[in-house]
């Protein structure tokens, strides 16, 4: 041991500055709150998004259009995708569970069958909605549709 490696015992030096404990502490007086104003007083809290009186970003950004809160969002599944699944797994019915099992939809999704591609399989298709072209193609192939 020599003078170059002397250090205080562990735990003897406090690292946290104690605020508001007199001028000698270096954090006395206003206790880091500054002079006057709402921020210096107790009970002060600003609202989320408050920018010190400047017009908040939420109000500065232009808004346009219309958000329909009653909108029903469907997950589209095309006929060519259905055809591929039916051929690969030789299915007789295609329903929500089948599509979920093959990773095409999630548990809370609503399904709409769309008309892209060729469809030749004679199957029963169960979904929440069908496009007109998809419905024609499924029925033309000898299949049937069931709306959930």
TrEMBL record:
Spans annotated as Disordered: 1-53
Composition bias type Gly residues, residue spans: 21-31
Domain of life: Bacteria
UniProt GO cellular component terms: cytosolic large ribosomal subunit
Keyword Lyase appears in the UniProt entry: no
GO biological process terms held by the UniProt record: translation
InterPro entries according to UniProt: Ribosomal_uL15, Ribosomal_uL15/eL18, Ribosomal_uL15/eL18_sf, Ribosomal_uL15_bac-type
Chain ranges of the Large ribosomal subunit protein uL15/eL18 domain: 77-146
Keyword Oxidoreductase: no
Molecular functions per Gene Ontology: rRNA binding; structural constituent of ribosome
Pfam families referenced in this protein's UniProt entry, alphabetically: Ribosomal_L27A
Keywords, comma-separated and alphabetical: Ribonucleoprotein, Ribosomal protein, RNA-binding, rRNA-binding
Record family assignment: Belongs to the universal ribosomal protein uL15 family.
Role played: Binds to the 23S rRNA.
Quaternary structure and partners: Part of the 50S ribosomal subunit.
Protein's name in the database: Large ribosomal subunit protein uL15
Protein source organism: Sphingobacterium cellulitidis
